[in-house]
């Protein structure tokens, strides 16, 4: 699927892709009280609520459309079957292979095979739709492991599993759980602290590794790692030499995965990813050891005395015109936003940028909910932490400005083409930099 699965109509109605009622006149905080089969609305308009696409969602095999509109109830099974066949055929060739499997779940719950709806009953009360999607995802991973075992290559295959972001707060009961990572400081101010934000609940995701005989089973690591580490790690285990004319943000995780090391990164930087304030890509937050440092947080809650409370209400006028006027008034939000509802809370609260000088600092080991910023009184080490974190950020910014830089130009293309370009670039790179001609398969749909 060449773009996000909620960006076009499918064979049967999907769950509503925006947090409004069907008339689009008000937010849906009541959606949090509803379950599958109740009144949480479906998208019956054959398109996004904000009008990005009214085209039927296509399913591609390479560059050929094999189904349009896509049948979501069958998508998981079709993807898994294709991956199983790829594993079998590659193992039969006796050659190393690479499989990138981008599962359809769980962005927001998608239609699943009916058997998972039945299996999900009572699993997550109030979130049965999410539970069904999660069960189907679990089945996909299990089937791929079984395929590796049946092909006799499980003992020589590294499996890496990760999510893409935290729960999408504005989807209410259609989103998952962030565990203890609530971003309480943010929640008190209004707006979301989950997907599209730099709070722990927005970008901290599960990371799993499996390699019999190489990765000890049942171990949990507290090492600071990132999906940026996957490229150097895969290159290391396959003996591929990465180009030496650039710097890499990732590192080889095998020493940590194998249990030979307990630490990976000391610093990780978190670019702005569309939380409604600031500029996309700015390094607004970072991890510095056990500390989390924020140069920017979102603190404006519509409904306060701030004169910007007149901003966008999708029921007051034509949706697109109201949104256009909103962004004309505050263009900095247009630059920051990948979608005006990316960082909305379930109740519809939005947020505005507030810069911090000096930055806010949280101890995320002692305070995983990021509730109380540190003070020098409570944490005498704070001045040193700030000096070192600021210096590390400045060093990273210098490195970015002097390293190889490329800018994607989407002005003449479509979102779907961008997804295809990314998949082809990954495939071509792996083929060009392998020691021999190795099978490569990418099962991809883009996400936001």
| Overall 3D shape | globular
Q: How many H/I helices? A: 11
Q: What is the H/E string?
A: EEEEHEHHEHHEHHEEEHHEHHE
Query: What's the average pLDDT?
Result: 75
Summarize the structure.
It is built from eleven helices and twelve strands.
What would your notes on this structure say?
This protein has eleven helices and twelve strands. Helix 1 packs parallel to helix 3. The chain has a four-stranded antiparallel beta sheet, covered by helices on one side. Strands 1-2 form a two-stranded antiparallel sheet. The chain is globular, with a radius of gyration of 23 Å. The C terminus is likely disordered. Strand 3 and strand 4 form a beta hairpin. The chain has 448 residues and is α+β, with helices and mostly antiparallel strands.
Topology (elements, then pairings):
Layout: E1 14-15, E2 42-43, E3 59-61, E4 64-67, H1 72-93, E5 98-101, H2 114-119, H3 128-150, E6 159-162, H4 184-189, H5 200-203, E7 207-210, H6 230-238, H7 254-257, E8 267-271, E9 283-288, E10 291-298, H8 319-329, H9 331-336, E11 353-363, H10 382-402, H11 415-432, E12 440-443
Parallel strand pairs: 5-12
Antiparallel strand pairs: 1-2, 3-4, 6-7, 8-9, 9-10, 10-11
Helix pairs in contact: 1-3
